[in-house]
Design brief:
single chain; about 400 residues; alpha+beta; Rossmann fold; Dna Ligase, domain 1; D-amino Acid Aminotransferase, Chain A, domain 1; 4 domains; 4-stranded parallel beta sheet; about 30% helix; ligase; nucleotide-binding
Length: about 400
């Protein structure tokens, strides 16, 4: 049995090979990512480099079509969703579908699609240059973001006209840094409220798993997530409307087989407003939180979904699980105290004395997190507050 992994993801590769070492992985990605030797690649049996989706179809697909042992194509990242759909279509394997592959990679196309089918979302405008952004600003706060990047990269809030030029320049610089093919942004009316994500698994057009995740953000204006809670506690009417909206999107977009990771704002009067949708597994450690909360290996079940094997998703959560990122002041690290307190807590920390810690402006700027779970929500929150005080990282400007 062989699986094509479109995008060099060690998280997915490790999961597959831990559970089923006999599976052969074919890893396909752009050459710039295949050069990265920061992780062990000895168990990844074959690497194939390509440049564009056209190359994938014209040069790579014909070589794979003859291999009857290939059972699935898994998109590892948001940037590979469209190409994974192209390749799976050529190989006649499970895939998200052409509409989903297009609209879930372009925030403007998603807005247009959802407007046509009546999904609740904020007013928006495609932005080509700073003059258009300036003309669209009416004095009300706006969110401005790239149309194709993930991980909160380049997302800013504009509340005053005097900041438009600097915020536009920041977003444009982030798009260039990420080698975005189009330097286009989308401006949207800012909607205040609580933030949630919703994870859907769809098998052959049928929704087989739903989850709500509560999202927390760093309070610095850059919309980077500081933590997640699974399952998220949300008003029942709002949850029903989120599910109803996503069911409609799945149907109208003719979604085949995929994970959908959508983000929502729930307003003070419990109205859910769509932020965006991605056609790939959720980021950060939401996958781990779902596994902890529901009592099954979510990532492995997703892999089974994409290769057409029988799955056993559990629809009722057993407990709460929360991820919390460490909040570290920007500056040079002069001391780190309390790591020993996390001996029995799942955590990661990538900080050393002398490191320069930047302000958190994108997901990449975060340096570590911990995860806790508990059957009781209030006990979990108390434990998270306690754990948050166990580590002290001192910095100087």
């Amino acid at each position: 049995m062989k699986i094509v992994l479109l995008g060099k993801s060690f998280v997915i590769a490790r999961k597959i090979l831990e559970i089923s070492p006999s599976i052969k992985l074919i890893v396909i990605d752009n050459s710039e990512y295949l050069k990265d030797d920061s992780n062990n690649t000895k168990n990844m049996s074959k690497f194939i480099s390509y440049v564009t989706g056209a190359d994938l179809v014209a040069e790579v697909a014909p070589k794979l079509i003859v291999d009857k042992d290939i059972v699935g194509v898994i998109p590892a990242f948001e940037r590979t969703v469209t190409d994974a759909n192209l390749l799976a279509k050529k190989l006649n394997l499970s895939r998200i579908g052409d509409i989903g592959a297009e609209i879930f990679r372009d925030k403007y196309k998603l807005r247009e699609f959802c407007e046509k089918i009546g999904i609740n979302q904020p007013p928006y405008k495609l932005i080509h240059n700073v003059e258009e952004l300036r003309n669209y600003f009416s004095g009300k706060p706006l969110i401005y973001k790239p149309i194709s990047l993930a991980g909160s990269v380049g997302v800013v809030k504009i509340s005053e006209e005097s900041t438009i030029d600097s915020e536009y320049s920041f977003t444009e610089a982030e798009m260039k840094r990420e080698n975005s093919s189009e330097l286009l942004g989308i401006a949207e009316e800012y909607v205040p409220g609580s933030e949630f994500s919703c994870e859907y698994v769809v098998e052959s057009g049928n929704v087989v798993f739903r989850n709500i995740t509560k999202k927390f953000k760093f309070d610095n204006g850059y919309f980077v997530e500081s933590g997640h809670l699974v399952p998220g506690i949300v008003n029942g009417i709002a949850q029903h409307e989120i599910f109803e909206s996503l069911d409609k999107i799945v149907s109208e977009a003719q979604i085949g087989t995929a994970i959908l990771h959508s983000e929502w704002i729930v307003t003070h009067d419990n109205q859910p407003v769509l932020v965006e949708i991605a056609g790939r597994r959720p980021g950060d450690r939401i996958v781990d939180l779902i596994s902890l909360a529901y009592g099954f290996d979510f990532l492995w079940e997703y892999c089974l979904t994409m290769i057409g094997e029988n799955t056993s998703y559990q629809g009722i959560s057993l407990k709460f699980a929360e991820q919390k990122y460490f909040e570290i002041s920007s500056g040079e690290v002069i001391s780190i105290n309390g790591i020993e307190n996390f001996a029995n807590i799942k955590f990661e920390l990538d900080v050393h004395e002398g490191d320069i810690i930047p302000e958190v402006k994108s997901s990449e700027d975060r340096r570590g997190y911990f995860i806790l779970s508990n059957n009781d929500f209030f006990a979990l929150e108390a434990n998270v507050r306690k754990a948050n005080k166990l580590l002290t990282i001192s910095t100087k400007s």
